[in-house]
Design goal:
alpha/beta, Rossmann fold, eight-stranded mixed β-sheet, 48% helix, globular
Length: 371
């Protein structure tokens, strides 16, 4: 299996002027945006930048000392990426600047972004995907009933704030929600900025409602959007997408294919797969039918009710739920008994509709597997 670490061995000593930016560079920089760069990478209000090599050296020191970082790593592979990137010629001299990280429970927003000047007269603006915070996932679910979420507006504001201070062309991208934000920002920023965007990368990212896909700004950048999904994609098949997506191979199975570290690569591209798996199509079809069967008001009621149960159980993050799942599940069950009957009814009825949609599609999936 060849992943981004193998790529860094193959291409790590070649700069972007000698070997042009390619889709693998996109997933590496999208993964980089998950790191907590507070007090390391200058904020949008500061003019200075810092090289990737220096930033990751400081970051690595903080990991080892366990000081100054709110979270040492989002992914178990991050420490290896930090050391490999910092040691590479291709990425080590790239400059980081404009780091922002904003999580606000009241506004229901989880937003983070940074700029990476790649030394080829271009800058990659990377939007972070959803972190492990409960409010981050709540904001994602809000896409089901809202035309716009706070992070999307923040992404537009960010690109319009940073673009005047950047020379050359722009590439915009991200993983998961980050790719959705990249598309939204590129579609809604000013025309002068839009003209400078040479590529938009969405890596296993949820889509949009039909209204957005008809927006003139989206149509203006549509041909520059590169959408990648793994064979068993779930997140990347949510909501609506226009245009084709490129299916790539992952070394993992099921939902774990969402992890960029599992994506298989060549020396300048991802390893392509012919089609999505039948399970991915089944899940995508079921979820779309489910969403079509539930109006926006009921979607909101369901999401708000479910979120209320988790917050009542004092669950603040998915990481917390995973580490202390036995205790957390007990709290969730207790909080379920405390919520009103009307909220419990909303959850029961909405989940019932989901199971009915799955039941209508499961027969075709079984027939395909038998065949």
């Amino acid at each position: 299996m060849t992943n981004m670490f193998e790529y860094l061995k193959w291409r790590g000593d070649i700069d972007f002027n000698s070997s042009p930016f390619n889709p693998v560079d996109n997933i590496i920089l999208s993964q980089l945006s998950y790191l907590t760069f507070e007090n390391i990478v200058p904020s949008p209000e500061e003019k200075e930048g810092i090289s990737i090599a220096m930033a990751l050296k400081i970051y690595d020191e903080k990991i080892n000392s366990k000081e100054g970082l709110k979270s040492t790593s989002f992914f178990k592979e991050d420490p290896d990426l930090i050391r490999a990137l910092g040691a590479s010629r291709r990425f080590g001299d790239c400059h980081l600047f404009g780091f922002i990280n904003n999580t606000d429970i009241v506004r229901e927003i989880q937003f983070s972004a940074l700029c990476i000047h790649t030394g080829d007269d271009s800058c990659f603006i990377a939007f972070r995907g959803t972190d492990s915070s409960l409010i981050g996932w709540k904001e994602d679910f809000n896409m089901c009933f809202r035309d716009v979420i706070p992070s999307q507006l923040e992404a537009v504001y960010y690109i319009e704030k940073m673009a005047p201070h950047i020379t050359g062309n722009l590439r915009v991208g991200g993983h998961s929600k980050g790719g959705n934000l990249a598309i939204y920002a590129a579609s809604n920023c000013g025309k002068n900025i839009q003209k400078r965007i040479t590529a938009v990368y969405a890596n296993d990212s949820p889509g949009f409602n039909e209204k957005f896909l008809k927006h003139p700004g989206y149509k203006a950048v549509k041909d520059r959007i590169h959408t990648f999904v793994p064979q068993s994609s779930v997140i990347g098949m949510l909501l609506n997408h226009a245009g084709d997506h490129t299916v790539i191979k992952s070394s993992e199975n099921g939902i774990m294919q969402h992890n960029l570290y599992s994506w298989e690569v060549t020396y300048n591209n991802m390893v392509l797969s012919e089609n999505l798996t039948e399970s991915s199509r089944f899940i995508s079809k079921t979820l779309r039918q489910w969403l079509d069967s539930v109006d926006n008001e009921k979607r909101q009621e369901f999401i708000e009710a479910f979120y209320h149960i988790l917050t009542a159980a004092e669950v603040n993050s998915l990481a917390e739920l995973e580490k202390t799942w036995f205790t957390a599940v007990g709290k969730v069950l207790k909080s379920l008994n405390k919520v009103s009957e009307s909220k419990r009814k909303i959850i029961r009825n909405t989940l019932k509709e989901l199971f009915l949609c799955a039941g209508r599609n499961i027969e075709s999936l079984i027939k395909i597997k038998d065949r």
